[in-house]
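User: Can you fold this complex?
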Amino acid sequence: MPRTATYHTTVQWKGEHRGRILMGNGPEMEFSAPPDAQGHAGVLTPEDAFVAAVNTCVMMMFLWSAERFKLDLVSYECLGEGTKLIELDRTELFTQVLLRPRIVVRADEADRDGAMKRLRRAIDSAVKYSLVANSIKSKLVLEPEIIIVPQAVPAQ
Amino acid sequence: MANDSTGAIEFTIDKFIFRFPQNLRYSRDGLWVMQEGSVLRIGIADFVQQRNGDIAFATLIPAETNVKAGDEIASIETVKVNFSLPSPVSGKVVEINASLQNSPELINLEPYGKGWLVALQPADPEGDLGALMTAEAYSNWARQLAEAEMRS
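Assistant: Here's the predicted assembly.
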């Protein structure tokens, strides 16, 4: 098993406070700073990318762990919120990333408690094994809303 | 390598600490065996449980089954991998840990306690136990495996 792997992105200045990014996995898009930091609206920002990296990584790891815990997932939606601190010397950092996933799982009434327990373990595992969550120094806070529905509810 | 406060042998690789109680015997597959009168209690050693991740399901062989050394006694599904555990000894399964059905995480939390797998009535207690490794021998073996993986 290889012990390391590498991932790449390439950025290029496009004039003013604008750039273009080519992701290693294919997508290409414009980016800027947020408007309150002399950037432009309507495009990717490093701040959004940071919060998105955590949110997407935890979700992908959750999908994997939900399969491993044999959960019948109906839906997953998660609001991610990064809190930026501006220090006295005007340096900035994300002190916290808050994730509020709303997770709906289908289960037999007889397995409701078991499904709930497996779901909570799947959430814990998603955070534990998330590459990005493991790589940030911000505090990661999860506030999941969990809903167990009976077998008759169709997948979304 | 060092002995911790309970007398178990332990070693550290990177940020991971692995413990091996000295009153147990170990198979190369990473199972521990404890003699309790005429019965042998079997579980998963700390090195194997840590290396394979959070356990989602543990399926045990039924009680009353006769097994030979090398026969599967448990299949484990973790968040990362599936693996099968061969019996370190021959004998008859006299008890299984029913708690693992709803709480397989006990193997991660208490690998040498509440996370035990099965208890066997051995066919040849002296011979079977004698063929297993001491804590010191197994910890050396586990360290070699861990170091080889870290180098790869």
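Chain A has a mean pLDDT of 95. The helical segments of chain A are 46-68, 112-129, 131-135.
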